[in-house]
């Protein structure tokens, strides 16, 4: 899979999970095994860099208070405004989601033939984008572990973390779309084994998909 034949189709994998689930760790482990990872959060950060149209529209919608002295977006300040307020969150999504979709579609289209592309997308279920993928991977973790990670890694208070979670899909909703479920509860060996097993399963699926597509030519 790391040296695919020229002209082989791209295998497209959707990776999702709630905030604090450790989804980004799974994405990194897949990248180490040869996957090309497209990170929706990084795309969003790039889109709101100083001088970009999305940032200007956010300022017009939410006011200059969401900008730091250096001209960068105050992501924490904006989050405090939108999470817990459905109308404000919807306004932000209306600005950002079409742009993120356009950027990521272009990146996926540019993937080298035969590659395995992992689209790391937190809001896959919330946006109803779970269809059309070759495989959907869901990462989840117990609530206490998620809260502890968010406090440790992002400095979130318990109410802030819970507000973010409340704006996302539930574990049950994500499980319903999963081809593979990875429980990331902090056991490093189990997580490594789960990703290795997933990569092997993806290799098998990619080979099967290539054969099906060749038979249909």
Overview of the structural elements:
The protein has 217 residues and is an alpha/beta fold. The protein is 53% helix and 12% strand. It is built from 9 helices and 5 strands. It has a 5-stranded parallel β-sheet with strand order 2-3-1-4-5, sandwiched between helices. Helix 3 (53-62) runs antiparallel to helix 5 (86-109).
Q: Biggest sheet, in brief?
A: 5 strands, parallel
The count of β-strands is 5
Secondary-structure-based class equals alpha/beta
First-to-last CA distance: 22 Å
SSE series: EHEHHHHEEHHHEH
Radius of gyration: 18 Å
Could you give the order of strands across the largest sheet?
2-3-1-4-5
Quote the average pLDDT.
90
Helix content: 40-55%
Describe the structure concisely.
This protein is of the alpha/beta class and 217 residues long. It has helices at residues 23-32, 40-47, 53-62, 75-82, 86-109, 143-154, 158-166, 171-175, 188-215; strands spanning 11-17, 36-39, 116-120, 135-140, 180-183.
